[in-house]
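Protocol step 6 of 9: fold each sequence in the batch and record its structure tokens directly after the sequence line. For illustration, a two-sequence batch is reproduced in full.

Sequence one:
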Amino acid sequence: MHNVASIEVEQDMIIANDELAYENRKKLDENGVFSVDLVGAVGSGKTSLLEKLIDEMDEDIAVIAGDILSKFDAKRIEDKNIPVKGLNTGKECHLDAHLVEHALPDVPLEDISYLFIENVGNLICPTDFKLGAHVRTVIISVTEGDDTAEKHPMIFKGADMAIVNKVDLAEAVNADADKMVNDIHRINPDIPIIKCSLKTGEGVSEIIELYKEFKESRLKK
């Protein structure tokens, strides 16, 4: 009986979260803001990617930075002189739609065209929790091991795009970036995947172009 009750409570939480995520999406659509839920493990390159996008995209960008203690990543974004809202999750290992709902009033939606939501560094906990973003991007790095994707299939099944980062270090850490791409495609055959190195700049322009394509097709105007 206890197992049944636990499952029912979890299902209710997911349903309630999905309803809030829908309201978050409506608010973003009403303001013409395209949003990305950026998921990846600690050290995968989430914040570095945001810094690179801020530097190279000719767009008005804001960031919601979520973490168990968000001040470190938020400070890096603040140094780029763009709006950033830090979200401390405490003991929670993921963001949810409720947290994002409370953060949105502190984001100048009327002045931006892109909102990047940096999720907590984890490839498991965020899986079932939609935030209201238009696209979920999963970023992994070769330094995590080239079996990372096959160890975390669920996060890729619900993702819209994937990035394999730090490919310049693949040989040094004895990792096969192509294997990682193939593993992701076995899990989600239709997902676009970009190999990149945020250090050298490889793949960054392709990431930016893909976001522009997603914005054009998914943002309700």
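Sequence two, same batch, same settings:
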Amino acid sequence: MFTGIIETTARVVKIEKENTNYHFTLEVPFGNELAIDQSMAHDGCCLTVVKVDKEKRQYVVTAMDETMLKTNLASWKVGTEVNVERSMPMDGRFDGHIVQGHVDQTATCTRVVDENGSWRFYFEYDPTKNDFFTVPKGSISINGVSLTVVDSQKGMFSVAIIPYTYQVTNFHNFQPDTVVNIEFDVIGKYVQRLMAQYMEGQR
């Protein structure tokens, strides 16, 4: 489980394909602290560390075909900057919201507005892929970043980004047509599913 509070960004240094799997080698400042079997969120996608080179501060994660199809990992190249977060310690503060690291789908950035001190990012997603949706002031995870929804319409939402988040995450690389991973609020998903089952039972 994660909180959506990004620790830092990692850089993709190598990509290898093996059958339908992709092995990504990334470099991160805390690479010497990692261990095999550790779970980490990469742009909001939970992946397992399978190899570590502590001297180079590098590690390897593997993404299967299902992950490549449902996330933005297929767009990663050598040099891509990736938001990373290690799993939440049980004795730590819960500063974001519940992020499972299970990407629901991708969204596309449609507009970036400089608001003279902050930025407003607008995103569109396919509302027919699942029944999930956003609500104003609700939570959303974008590339693993815990954020609050500002505008909310069917298939579209916006978020406001402060300078700190802009600088320490890969939001500073976003531009129109950038594809990102999104995870809807897990509590909202359960409520929506329960309501759907209830309505079905009333028919």
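Proceed to step 7 once all outputs are recorded. Observation for sequence two: Helices lie at 65-70, 163-168, 186-202.
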